[in-house]
Amino acid sequence: MNALRTKTLTATATTAATGAALLLGAALAQPAAAVELPNSAVAYFTTGSNLTGARFAVDTADTGCHDLPAAAASAVDFTTANITVYFNAGCTTGRPGQPGDLSYALGSLHWANFPYPAVSYRVTS
Description:
Elements: H1 2-28, E1 43-46, E2 55-57, E3 65-77, E4 82-86, E5 104-106, E6 110-124
Antiparallel strand pairs: 1-2, 1-3, 3-6, 4-5, 4-6
């Protein structure tokens, strides 16, 4: 009797684990928001999330601090440079309007939505 109960419990646990794995797989297979990525070496900021809205090009050869003409919600860096993104003007670290050490590192060959509006940046190699 104990052997039959053990087999039943094992089969039930296996079925539950399989069902959970199928549900997780189905959740992960859902399409993400469509993001149109560039097909050449470019870097730019956009005013909307997921690379939408107005674009502001980045000159990756210029390593000075640059204030953006408008706050950016996302950016793409499909170049060999890295970009440090700031949430305050003048490449000042911190949350918007607050002192601190917060900045965002946008690495080479990446794109991102920012946690706060980006207002300045510096290219780093």
